[in-house]
Amino acid sequence: MLTGVTAAHVRRWASESVAAVARYREPLNRANVFPVPDSDTGTNLLLTLTQGAASIGRHDDVSLALSEFAGGALVGARGNSGTILAEYLQGLANAAAEFAGAEAGSVLDGVQLAAAFDRGASAAFRAVAEPAPGTILTAARSAADAAVTAVAAAPDLDTRSVTLAALAAARAAVSHGPEELDVLRRAGVVDSGAVGLVLVLSALAGALSPGLSGEDDSSAAHGSPSPDDAARNLAHAPGAGPAVGWPAADEAAKGVDDQVAAADEWLATAVTPFEAHPWRDETAALDPEHPFEFMCLAYPEADAGDGSLDPVAELRSRLADTGVSLVVIGDALESGHAPARVHIHTPDPAAVIAAADGWRLRQVVVHELSRGFGHRHGAGPKVNGDGQWSWIGVTRAPGLLAEIARAGGIALFSQDGTVEVNEFARALTDAGCDSVLVLSGIGEHAPRPQESEASPGEFATNLARAAKATGKTARIVAGDAVANEAQLAAALGHLPMLVTESFTRAESGLDAAWRALLPIPASGASAATAGRAGGDGHDLTATLTKALQPDDLLVVVADDSWPREARAALSDAVRAADCELVLVASGRTGNGYAAAIERL
């Protein structure tokens, strides 16, 4: 007889959730139409759950296990649905913490599990700036209401029965989604994120199956279940009745394999590939006014808010005008220690960073929604590591984030000039391909004078560690050279000519192009700072008067307070030298600049 949800159940639940979403990843991707049809919901949910599952330790504290699951999911969250799911899990964890108190090794009973479902649904709803019906939020609320109703009628109901009541309601909510959200109706699909939640609840029902107790923790003894095992658990999860053809798994006439096939058939119908619909072009248009997805972890500083709201709510309010599909999650009770996770679709990533002034930002990644994660370059499939590739652009200039993403890269922002191993790992994972080129405007990746060739510096070392952890091949373009933001901006112009080349040829071409760029240090600045010194611009103009040759292209990345008269003087000098000037806004406060010459 089940005695409640234990830490072992949470570990198995997390593992089976990963396997279930992995099995249906591609159908979920293909059916993804809301909030934008960028075909990545399955991938986002999988990456979110994978990091959550990997964060759970081996112990007997169910509250801690749920907190670890939620915390890992928050750090690993991808996309709109993944971010919402992470906050849903955090709500469950917060409820469990209150029930458990200080007693380690406690369990959740049916009434407490129902209350946790309710807390999770409420947390997810609050995290979304503009909640929409027919989505994962509706499925979560329907599931919670059904669970609460079930335990009100039968307070002694076991946890699996509570989960099955929630699951049945979530399935029904999925089926009614197109009636509530017009974009789903026109596309002829249900919401991918809502189906993802059904898979997660199905995995919980499977983890709570009789015989899987804390003493019989199969996930600990035998590793994660296979996708087929997860599908069997999915097929074995009965509810009050099938919704939209969802198989009634307890039908005696059907064996396990038949039930798995029936579950697959239901999902194939529920998440019919969007490409199959004749109105795809009308419905699938991405929002041209909000082309970039921006995600980050945000840590509040002492002056992050005005004190009228908790820090996470304050951040959500401040970001509301910078884009759409805004989701800001985080445990407000722990906001002084744990980060908030931010997801938004925006026309201007630099504006998001400016609105988050006073917050310490890490894992800031930006990509263009029309390309999706892992935009691939190169001629054909990867062969011996020399086929398809993708790239990352690392910058301290908020103004370059949109340019990097628009050129097809994963933009990785460094607020303080450092890049941690987990930040590289995040960007490498988002880059998709096994082979990744890294273009960096941060000069510190070059070896310092006191460092040997075997000790290439923190930037390169952290990248190497992240590449090893993610199984990627990652190379810094011109990694032994001094770099600045102007060189990075200029190098972006060479990418269109190299996207059809192999990884090796693309690396060689970008390396040659980068080394042909001449960084221009400001007066009195060392080569290491390469033009990041401040000034009124007259020092730069004097330097360029001597350095420029006819037909040169001068690229300058200037901070927001760089004097207008300096810009005018520079423009006059470039025109007099019969050259061309490209002036890019860095998006930073201050009066610094970076400059480089490309000799055409």
Automatic annotation (TrEMBL):
It comes from the Bacteria. Gene3D superfamilies: 1.25.40.340. One of its GO terms (molecular function) is glycerone kinase activity. Pfam families: Dak2. Residues 235-247 have a biased composition (Low complexity). InterPro entries: DegV_domain_contain, DhaL_dom, DhaL_dom_sf, FakA-like_C. Residues 8-206 form the DhaL domain. GO terms for biological process: glycerol metabolic process. Residues 212-247 are annotated as: Disordered. This is DhaL domain-containing protein. The lineage of its organism: Bacteria, Bacillati, Actinomycetota, Actinomycetes, Micrococcales.
